């Protein structure tokens, strides 16, 4: 379920917080098939320009054990 009402354009997806990136992308693309999804670390510097198809996902979790080599 998207965060917008019927007939409105979805601009945010609070329901994807806590999901994997893959799952979050599925939800977003269901609501906005033309989305250009960009995955960035939390705190990344971003431009101030507005691109209507861009959706930024900010992540800060280490998903796997870091290993040397």
TrEMBL record:
GO terms for biological process: response to wounding. The keyword Plastid does not apply. The keyword Protein transport does not apply. It holds the Pfam family potato_inhibit. One of its GO terms (molecular function) is serine-type endopeptidase inhibitor activity. Transmembrane segments: none annotated. Keywords: Protease inhibitor, Serine protease inhibitor. It comes from the Eukaryota. Belongs to the protease inhibitor I13 (potato type I serine protease inhibitor) family. This is Subtilisin-chymotrypsin inhibitor-2A. It comes from Brachypodium distachyon. The lineage of its organism: Eukaryota, Viridiplantae, Streptophyta, Embryophyta, Tracheophyta.
């Amino acid at each position: 379920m998207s965060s917008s009402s019927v007939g409105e354009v979805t601009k945010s997806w609070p329901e994807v917080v806590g999901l994997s990136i893959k799952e979050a992308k599925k939800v977003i693309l269901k609501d906005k098939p033309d989305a250009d999804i960009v995955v960035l670390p939390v705190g990344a510097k971003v431009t101030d320009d507005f691109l209507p198809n861009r959706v930024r996902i900010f992540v800060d979790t280490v998903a796997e054990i870091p290993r040397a080599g």
